[in-house]
């Protein structure tokens, strides 16, 4: 018999420690070490017989795997065209953001098209799922439901020739393998449960959708290896104070990783937003200083959002800088460049920067729009409402070109914007004003 021993596993990164300590040496997290039982391999154990490897060459290229349309164009676009058979997809997001609602709507649509779908919940009872489906108007969908947490019971239902086309596990942190002594949600249980389910999906050819909890930092809870095991990792983002939800792919073996899907939460569930730019700008105020419209790109989709700035005098030696939806480090850089290269004084001011609508901007092309909003707030001069801006700012104050400028300007023109502030460009665009340096941007704002 194998000897039983224990080790301490970090529930944040999965690192193993021989003894307990308050801090994980691998990731630096505090109070995350949990004792778990392990089995030692007997010294005299002989290796089993190998079955060999199935090898192939690059010339043996297979055709693109078949996909299953979910019926939600925004979700299909993020996935790259739909669910790929024998693939594993991990969906993470804050509690109550709408992960289960999104998957229930997608599964009901898939089941209505003749595909067998099994929705397994480890957090809700069957009655709770049925009530939510009735509220969403999905009661008539031929969707099979189950409430279970034992992976062995789930595998007995799907690891067979007539396996369903789609299996949903909500959530992977509630699943457990009865051969392990640790509790559900621990690193060993999450890793082993995911491995067994993914192995069955690859073997039987069904699409596996796993719902994952997130930590307070917004990362999927459990071992980091979980994200490496799956084919696609999706994050469902949004501000609880807004109705908008953003579905973003951070890993996708069958499509692009920079696409987003936009949804709006309502009484009847999640509705797709076909024109997100108009949605994010429909409540925009007019003739107010500190507001600039940024023409950005999310994957292949141009997206217009409003960047709002507020600059106020500070009585503290270290004024506050706060951001919502914008990188705080990049704000500090922009403020330093504006002060050093353009003579705009922000060192004695408190600065607040917000991206309206709950969006999060990650591309450097937002530098010019953020700078215009900051200058407008400092000078108390409104920016014309028909103006959009984009461009990257360097530490020397130069304004650098960005990609896909034609697509950005085309989206802006479709929404009625007639003037743009952009970096020096090889193309000629109607109403475009080229700025090569931040001091030219300041002069432009002073003349506005």
Task: Tell me about the largest β-sheet.
Answer: 9 strands, mixed
Q: Helicity range of the residues?
A: 25-40%
Strand arrangement in the largest pleated sheet: 8-7-9-10-6-11-12-13-14
The total beta strand count reads: 23
Shape, please?
globular
Look at the structure and give the CATH class of the largest domain.
Alpha Beta
Tell me the CATH superfamily of the largest domain.
P-loop containing nucleotide triphosphate hydrolases
- The radius of gyration computed from the alpha-carbon positions, rounded to a whole number of angstroms, is 26 Å
Low-confidence stretches: 40-45
- State the CATH architecture of the largest domain: 3-Layer(aba) Sandwich
Mean pLDDT score, rounded? 88
Structural class: alpha/beta
Q: How much β-strand is present in the residues?
A: 25-35%
A few lines on this structure:
With 448 residues, the protein is an alpha/beta fold. The chain has helices spanning 73-79, 99-112, 126-135, 151-158, 187-204, 225-229, 276-281, 328-342, 367-379, 405-414, 438-447, and strands spanning 4-10, 16-17, 33-39, 67-68, 83-84, 88-93, 117-121, 144-147, 166-170, 207-212, 232-237, 244-252, 260-266, 269-272, 291-298, 301-313, 321-324, 349-355, 387-389, 392-393, 399-400, 419-422, 432-434. The protein is 26% helix and 26% strand.
